[in-house]
Amino acid sequence: MDYIETKEKNKEVQRERRQDKRFVFMVPQALKSKPVGKLHLINLSINGAELLLPEDSNPKIGQTIEGHIPLPAGIKGVDFKGRIIWISNRNRKRCGIAFEGMPESEQIVIQAYLDYLERDKIIYNFKKVINNYLTCIRTLVELYTKKQLNKEIIERQQVKYLH
Fold first, then answer.
1. Contact by Cβ (8 Å): 118, 23
2. Within a 10 A sphere around the Cβ of 116, how many other Cβ atoms?
């Protein structure tokens, strides 16, 4: 296969792998894997993931990585096998994998996990907005109360004439 065919095939693979919605983790999730060792999950979709690699690792495109994605609240995690489809050495070494041979039941579990993460993110953002509004309302009430109190003090201090 020559360079141009490889480049076209990579573009095709990139279009395919970007069709699925991905969840980006604010804090990368720790994973254990074979043969790379300790990885961190940067983002996840039902068909693949982006992983942060250890600095001393030297994986190759096409290499297979096996690992386990832990799930919250004591739910059994998902074992995966993925083929490395790209590697980046920018700031920190990262790679993208496409899951291989994953049963449909495991894909359903990952989809449910992704839905859970999206809902949790929406609730978190909603909570931030509500807390911000409550802080603003509290400040306005305090300012109004202080203004009313100051007005009352000024009225009491004024000299009153009885006629």
1. yes
2. 15
